Amino acid sequence: MAVTEQQEPFTNGSAAAEEAPEPGSMTLFEHLAELRNRIIICAVAVVATTILAWFFYGPAIQFMRHPYCQFVHLHPNKALTKNDCQLFITGPIEGFTTRLKVSLYGGLVLAAPVWILQLWRFITPGLKKSEKRYILPFAAAATCLFALGVAVAIFVFPKALRWLILVSGPGIVPIFRPSQYFTLYVLMCLVFGLIFIYPLILVALELTGVVPSARWRKWRRPAIVVLAAVAAVATPSNDPISFMALAIPMYVFYELAIVVGRVLKK
Known about the structure:
Blueprint: H1 2-19, H2 28-55, H3 57-74, H4 78-83, H5 94-110, H6 112-123, H7 129-132, H8 135-166, H9 178-195, H10 198-207, H11 213-218, H12 220-234, H13 240-265
Subcellular location: Cell membrane; Membrane
Protein name: Sec-independent protein translocase protein TatC
Transmembrane segments: 39-57, 102-123, 135-157, 184-207, 219-235, 241-264
């Protein structure tokens, strides 16, 4: 009996040790609470930057109208030059909704460093200690790549707009609504910015050992097809200039991600 009584505490302690959560682990409710907090921080940042963009609405629309004005001033069509690159609203509240949309779009772009950092912070609890040191460098690199994607979209948009107007053929005079024009402009910036972040995902998968660099090299040919398909779908204008401006950097980033992942893994 003495032996049995001594064994029981040992058995209960072993079961308790098996049921005890690992250090640093989180329950489902803790994950949901963490996600809620990150979303609230992102929402506050977007609201603040949207208010800021609201007050800079005038300079913003002048900047975004420049590609259209440049095309109109260089185009021989007299009907276009007569309009002097004006955008036309067709409803009494369209001007207000346009300003609201442009401010919100601008807020999303300006708040990119915040929501990118919060995304990485949300992923942090699932990483090892050796992997957590990459969080801030990854967030900084993602912000820079997002800004680079936006810059490429701004550079490409005038050529894409020219292609969209000329492809309609002769005898057709474009009269743009501001909501549609600005939506296309900002959507193109967001798409390019988000896609330029994708190589960081490849590097992260290499560092965590989910997908080794040898497998990315093995998947090079199928990846080229997938990247071309993504570029074709992601470019709102579907013109060849925008497609090449997105497809070529995506492939270059794919190769760079393989190299960077191998170097960091070593």
